[in-house]
Specification:
The protein contains 21 helices and 13 strands. By secondary structure, the chain is α/β, with parallel strands linked by helices. The longest helix is centred in the C-terminal third of the chain and has 30 residues.
Length: about 500
């Protein structure tokens, strides 16, 4: 596993940045350790350096087969629990990706990265991070139609005696309000100051998102901050010591940010969002789709389930754990000479670690083993987790051995594709690549051939006929992305325990 060329290093760094924010919010590292990685000057607006957006619109995204979502690591945007990706923003963007036959790649904003630069440089395609469409932000990006309305509320530490119920009362008592310089909350507080309300504000590093600041408020590190009401409601389910204060802004529109020249992408995103969120008559609540209401209930309004997934104490205790089956997967994979994180990534992709899963095609268990390809004659035994993992590892090992003459990057790509589509369809795609005078041992060529095998012009002459190649292409991409995320989590966990820093290497980097 020496070749590390497929995924840009920026993705690796983004994941590291995300985890630094998570560890910061859990109290596992000192804030000063994070701030040293960040430009300390917070008085320069949004600090945008890439002002000319790259030429990448929806047709380019469609051709590439992947849409890249820029976001922050938090319980309402994107986070991992037992190896599975969650988050309001993540699920909403994933819905769009699925409807458009696109793979979804998550780019988490690192501590020294600017989301607008990530967007305009082409390292991401949209910012989905509960962003308010402010005038300051519109100087550098444009926003889709909204998908939520929120109020900005002050949040106090419960150490504040008799917390004031008006913003004027906060000013009178000179209670300092801690916010990020680049946040919409900062600009709202500035507007209130311009109106003559003498507020005391404290600006902090942009590495700290709203949830991290709320955690510091709950730990009595600060007296007050500002949060959207939905983020406060979500955080208040697992943080102790938060007190809701007065509302300072009403009905802020939340939308996705995209490049100014991405007109086709804007059209597609707006068409999607229109199905899920529409303004009603004046004075009426917006109309939301069932899907959007389910997401709102799950992440902002329901009981403890999602909150417990992201609980900082739980995150600290489970640091370095990918799934409930880590020990078993490690043992079986190591004995076969297979990277256990890739086995875990396959299990997450196939079943989200559900050992009782059965597909429409008859694949069963954690690793979705097809009984006809298994050496275990009794299908019921394949629901046993250890048996299923051993069979899954045996099969992926056979595919790896079959492609062992290739370099490591291509070998893994072909093995994963074969695990998903079967050897027949991959052989058809390789023959098609040869017919087009392309190297059949290069995954990028076979990837293109798999997409062609969805069209009658090509599959009518293929030995195994039609295949939904886009699913196999996406399968390989998503497992590679997930592997790098998992590896970054484990490396970050180990570095944090040793106090050695943030170095990360990735198999597909």
């Amino acid at each position: 596993m020496q070749n590390k060329t497929l995924i840009p290093s920026t993705i690796r760094n983004s994941v590291v940045g995300a985890l630094s924010v998570l560890l910061l919010s859990t109290g596992c590292i000192n804030t000063d350790d994070i701030d040293q990685f960040v430009d300390g000057n917070t008085k320069e607006g949004l600090n945008v350096t890439v002002t000319e957006p790259v030429d990448r619109d929806y047709p380019d995204i469609k051709q590439d087969g992947t849409i890249k979502m820029i976001t922050r690591y938090s319980s309402n945007t994107y986070f991992l629990h037992q190896g599975i990706e969650w988050g309001f923003e993540y699920e909403l963007v994933r819905k769009f990706a699925q409807e458009h036959d696109l793979a979804l790649e998550v780019v988490v904003i690192g501590p020294n990265e600017n989301p607008y630069d990530l967007l305009n440089s082409g390292r991401g395609d949209l910012i989905a991070a509960n962003y308010t469409a402010t005038q300051e932000r519109k100087k550098y990006v444009k926003f889709t139609r909204p998908y939520n309305l929120v109020d900005q509320v002050l949040v106090f530490s419960d150490e504040i005696e008799d917390p004031p119920q008006t913003i004027e009362g906060v000013a009178e008592r000179e209670i300092p309000i801690t916010v990020r310089r680049n946040s919409s909350y900062y600009y709202r507080l500035q507007n209130l100051k311009d109106q003559g309300i003498e507020l005391v504000t404290n600006q902090v590093s942009n590495t700290k998102d709203t949830e991290a600041l709320l955690f510091e408020i709950s730990s009595n590190k600060h007296s007050a901050t500002v949060a959207d009401d939905n983020i406060f409601s979500a955080s208040n389910r697992y943080m102790q010591g938060l007190v809701r204060g007065p509302t300072i802004a009403e009905n802020d529109t939340i939308a996705w940010a995209i490049r100014n020249n991405a007109n086709d992408l804007e059209t597609e995103l707006n068409r999607f969002l229109y199905k899920h969120f529409r303004f009603g008559k004046v004075g009426e609540e917006p109309k939301r789709s069932t899907f959007l209401n389910v997401l709102r209930q799950r992440y902002f309004e329901s009981g403890q389930q999602i909150a417990e997934y992201y609980n900082p104490e739980m995150s600290s205790r489970e640091s370095g754990i990918i799934s409930p089956y880590d020990d078993l997967i490690k043992e079986v994979a190591d004995s076969a000479g297979v990277d256990w994180l890739l086995v875990a990534s396959i299990a997450a992709q196939e079943t989200k670690f559900n050992p009782n899963s059965k597909s429409w095609a008859g694949a069963v268990g954690l690793m979705q083993v097809m009984p006809r390809f298994s050496e275990v004659s009794n299908e019921e035994k394949l629901y046993d987790v250890e048996t299923n993992v051993r069979e899954g590892v045996r099969i992926i090992k056979e595919h790896l051995d079959h492609y062992s003459y290739m370099d490591s990057t291509n070998k893994w790509s072909f093995a994963l594709a074969t695990y998903n589509a079967g050897p027949g369809h991959i052989a058809d795609a390789r023959r098609l690549a040869i017919d087009q005078n392309k190297n059949p041992n290069e995954w990028k060529n076979v990837e293109d051939a798999l997409l062609k095998l969805m069209h009658r012009k090509y599959y009518k002459d293929a030995r195994y006929g039609f295949t939904r190649g886009i699913e196999t292409v996406r399968y390989v991409k998503e497992i590679k992305n997930r592997y790098n995320t998992y590896e970054s989590i484990l490396t970050m966990s180990e570095d944090n325990k040793k106090g050695t820093g943030f170095g990360v290497m990735g198999l597909f980097n």
